[in-house]
Amino acid sequence: MDHATARPLAAIVLAAGRGTRMRSDRAKVLHELAGAPLIARALGAIASLGPAPIVVVVGHQADDVAAAASRTLPHADLRFAMQAEQRGTGDAARRALGELPADFAGDVLIAYGDMPILDPATLGAFRESVRARGDALAFISVELDDPGAYGRVTRDAAGAVSAIVEARDATAAVLKLCEINTGIYLAAAPLLRAALGELRADNAQSEYYLTDIVAIARRHGHPVSAWRAPNPAEFAGVNSREELARMEAQIREDVNRQLMAAGVTLLDPATAYIAPGVTVGRDTVIGPNVQILGACRIGAQVVIEGTAWLRDTVVGDRCHLKLGVRAEQCVIGDECEIGPFANLRAGTELEGHNRVGNFVETKKARLGRGAKASHLSYLGDAFIGRDTNVGCGVITVNYDGYDKHVTRIGDRCMVGCDTQLVAPVTVGDDVYVAAGTTIVRDVPNGALVMAHHPQRERPGWTAQWHARHAGHPKAAPHPKAEGKTGGNAGGTPGA
Ligand code: UD1
Ligand code: CA
After folding, report:
1. Closest atom of ligand 1 to CA, residue 183
2. Over residues 182-190, mean pLDDT
3. Between the chain's N and C termini, which has fewer beta carbons within 10 Å?
4. Which of 18, 99, 112, 213 has most ligand 1 atoms within 8 Å of its beta carbon, as the pocket-test mutant?
5. pLDDT at residue 18, rounded to an integer
6. Residue 162 — φ and ψ, nearest 5°?
7. Phi, psi at 163, each rounded to 5°
8. 10 lines ligand 1 (CB under 6 A)
9. pLDDT (tens digit, 9 = 90+) per residue, 259-308?
10. CATH numbers and ranges of domains, the chain
């Protein structure tokens, strides 16, 4: 594409409608497909052509739709036009025109916000063809075996496009036509302004139809071309929950097929929910019931056993995620072993060769290379040094009811089981923490730290306790004799 000679391009996206057939309290374009609202997906494709400004026509839940659009394109020249009452696609386009500079004389791309699987390459090819032919008005059409409720493309005796006729206004003969309007148009701004000014609502729905600009342009002597797109599926709009689910399944199938073609094993593709844009390295094996959402990068030779939920997370090479791992906004280095049943919350960073085992919860926790927390821990707002072993049941006490505080543990420490670290607190390198210690002060390098209450025993106490409950309905039938021990319960006093 020759940018030096390209005419300026603006875009209009229609997203004011409620989407009656969704039977929802939310605007249709806010419903999500493969993890992103419909409007975000449509805008993403449109933005690939670099139009400025992009005017989004909003109506139903205008603020939420505008916010979703802004989140999608934070750096674009995005503007919003309000259409409080939905009087048709032509009325919506007219309102958008009001947000373009009055002297804008370039091309205007118009699309609908509920078309979520548009391919940017298709839009590019369409624009290039229109530019090469010098059309003042063109739109994308496709051939459908079952053209249903779509607008039909009618042609004159010479085969030139003469109009788009909405299904509800079409004669039986026109309804038989299989070339339909996808709803994507490219128009020279001056022609668009003139044509929109001439719209009338004299049709079955008493609406202003954007599609009428085709017949109007012809009346003014402008040829109109329909650019026949090869893949009709791309232009499917979402009108109902069923269509949404079908499209979701279609996207998922495509993503899974591409991943398998690239060398990823999916043990059960039917239950692998992987967002478009996620990258997965070669020879990685993904088990059943796995969701990998948002912007995830999964390394090579990783094993994800199954029942995992990952969002916006990086997983290094050769990691092993056992059954039941949940991770959000985490960076997991190479060769880590996680789970089963581990919850890695936002801000968790594992440098590599780490082990985070069952029932361990981490949040804003950085574990240096080789550090391990194998069982039943909470590590929040914590920095844990290299090769440190965090024992079973260790807890960082990070919250005082007002603020969160940081725990730092050095390299090569042995943090005994059932230790609490009351933050803010720093434990040096090479420290041994005795089991059951509550650490309330900083500990220097190389120290042993313990805070044990002296152990006390009352020999024979259990039998006395049972004796006091002799008449109780739950009374033990054969209380153990004094002094005898079962297993290691009780032990030897003073040992
Ligand atoms: C429209 C086309 C039809 C085409 C089909 C392709 C018209 C008149 N018809 O029909 O030729 O085959 O799309 O999918 O354009 N909207 C507004 N304001 C309004 C009305 C609609 O913003 O007043 C928005 C909707 O939110 C939606 C889009 O425009 O995103 C399309 O509207 P919709 O009612 O779905 O048009 P269709 O009947 O599908
Ligand atoms: Ca539609």
Report:
1. 6
2. 97
3. C
4. 112
5. 83
6. -110, -30
7. -165, 165
8. no
9. 999 999 999 999 999 999 999 999 999 999 999 999 999 999 999 999 99
10. 9-235 (3.90.550.10), 241-449 (2.160.10.10)
From start to end of 103-151, where are the E strands?
107-112, 137-143
Q: Are strands 179-188 and 137-143 parallel, antiparallel or unpaired?
A: antiparallel
CB 185 within 8 A of CB 241: no
Helix (H) or strand (E) holding 95, with range, is: helix 89-97
Residues with CB in 5 Å of ion ligand 2: 237
* Residues paired with residue 380 on neighbouring β-strands, in sequence order: 363
Ligand 1 pocket check for 287: Cβ under 6 Å: no
User: Is the pLDDT assigned to residue 388 strictly greater than 50?
Assistant: yes
Are the C-beta atoms of residues 306 and 290 closer than 8 Å to each other?
Answer: yes
Quick check: 127 and 187 in contact, CB under 8 A? no
Give, using CA atoms, the residue closest to atom 11 of ligand 1.
151
This prediction has a pTM of: 0.82
Ligand 1 pocket check for 164: Cβ under 6 Å: yes
Element (H, E) at 286: strand 285-286
Beta carbon of 89 within 6 Å of any ligand 1 atom: yes
Segment (H or E) for 126 = helix 120-133
- Can you say whether the dihedral through the CA atoms of 184, 253, 300, 329 is positive or negative? positive
Amino acid, res. 258: Q
CA distance 310 to 133: 48
Q: Whose CA is nearest to atom 39 of ligand 1?
A: 150
Which ligand lies nearest to the CA atom of residue 181 in the structure? 1
Q: Pocket of ligand 1, candidates 33, 89, 91: which has the most ligand atoms within 8 Å of its Cβ, to mutate?
A: 89
**Residue 485: predicted pLDDT:** 52
| The two structure tokens encoding residue 367 | 């574990």
**What SS3 state is found at 442?**
coil
Confirm or reject: Cβ of 14 under 6 Å from ligand 1: yes
Distance of alpha carbon 488 from alpha carbon 472, whole angstroms: 27
Q: Ligand 1 within 6 A of 57 CB? A: yes
Distance 239 CA to ligand 2 centre (A): 6
Q: What is the 3-state secondary structure (H, E, C) of 236-273?
A: CCCCCHHHHHHHHHHHHHHHHHHHHHCCCEECCHHHEE
Q: Which of 17, 67, 13 is nearest to 44 (CA)?
A: 13
> What average pLDDT score do residues 82-92 get?
96
